[in-house]
Amino acid sequence: MSATTTLNCLSNGSFALVKEVVAEGLTRRRLLDLGLVPGTKVEVIRRSPAGDPIAFNIRGAVIALRRDVAGQVLVSPWK
Amino acid sequence: MQKSLIPLLEDAQEIAGLRRNQLQDNIVASIYSTAEQIAGEVVSHTSPKRQDLDRQIDNILTSPIWGFPIMFGVLAVVFWVTIVGANIPSNLLATGLFWIEERLTDLFMALNAPGWLHGFLVLGVYRSLAWVVSVMLPPMAIFFPLFTLLEDLGYLPRVAFNLDRFFKKAGAHGKQALTMSMGFGCNAAGIIACRIIESPRERLIATLTNNFVPCNGRFPTLIALVSIFIAGSVSLSLSSFIATLTVAGLVVFGITVTLAISWLLSITILRGELSSFALELPPYRRPLLGQVLVRSVLDRTIFVLSRAVVIAAPAGGLIWILANTTVDGASLLSTLAGWLDTPAKFMGLDGFILLAFILGLPANEIVLPILLMSYVCGGAMTELASLADLRHLLVEQHGWTWLTALCTMIFSLCHWPCGTTLLTIQREQRSRRWTLLAALIPTAVGVVVCVFINNLVRLLDLV
Hints:
The structure holds two protein chains of two kinds. Chain A has two helices and six strands. By secondary structure, chain A is an alpha+beta fold. Chain A has one domain (5-77): Ferrous iron transport protein A (FeoA) (SH3 type barrels). The termini of chain A are close together. By secondary structure, chain B is mostly helical. Chain B has one domain (61-271, 286-459). Chain B has a two-stranded antiparallel ribbon. The interface between A and B is medium-sized, with 31 and 33 residues.
């Protein structure tokens, strides 16, 4: 198993596999509903011109998450 | 016996709580694995080119260098096209509609109708209708299709993506950029759109500040005032350029005020945690031109125009009565305006302007027509077919300066929302307190900014 990091720490263009969502309550629900279940492959596409939010490719949809929210998703870098 | 059960129960609840989370996770995970399996069987991707193209467009539209210039550029182009394009049809419409007014007058003369009937119906009701149509219709008929086009292309979520950082700093939700975009069409629609924001706190912030985005009822007012004041004062080639910059500047000012007030609210009466935010950037779509035209012209232009017409007709009649009912030698209209004159002057306006804003409460569309009506009813001027005539009326007869125009435009941007919007806020929030606040906040901002600018400019002797 490779090192664990959070989704907001990855650089643009990199891929990662979701390990766990550590958020609680509504945020947890929303992140899971977006498809961030363990094992899902996520691509970091780009950052907003102002640096935040970050756009991810989650199961074929482009979804932008704010940094603090993305920080609640544990991932392991892929490849 | 009971006492010894309590810790056991607590333990049980704790375990069940953990399990509940686990259960939820398992449900979502199994939904996704089933969905994946089904999708794998039935969905086939023929080419990844589509997605690549979207990304290349995004590379430009949300790039750190070009993102913001393109956003303001698009805004400016939309205004420029609207201002330049609306000018000629507006003049044509005014000429045509006032020609009809003269024929109507002839008809009333021929029928020997009493003077008050002619005044009420033709100089009151008909003339204000003519104003509303000739001032409002051309800019709306151009602005709405352009805006619907942007909507259809999928550009608006990119704007939200670019701007979210600022909304986050202001303690607001990123989707507020979308509710604001709706506000450009109609603030009442913008208020309803606030439903897309899940957190009540951030929804309220978006609701209370939506009015700082000029709706299409106020756009024509801004555009007309800018055109009147810029068109006559600089050369023709420059005028549309400067007019565009002015309107775009006003909109940027409105957005700045939105962020500032959102921030103030989020550190005072609406303190709280930022809620989670997920924004989808959908694929770009080729807009269906026919649909864009039908939707923007029928759903929006006709809807807004008919609302304005329905309200303007009785308002026009009312103004004519107010202007022609005299008590102690002065008309009611000028008496009312006289009362308002001192506070209005302090804000860089005059009594008639403030009165027009107050009488325009039912719909912002009729503020400028009401103002022109009340100016015209008092004086001898009858021909107002072109912008040059309007300029003459405002500048020569009623002492407007560029400062008056600027303060009027700022107050148009920052004052109480129209009646429909207030009713919508009341319906959405179910609270008189928030509805009242939604009216007070923009009004307070408008008064403060107008007083400040007016006195600063006068102090510096710039007028």
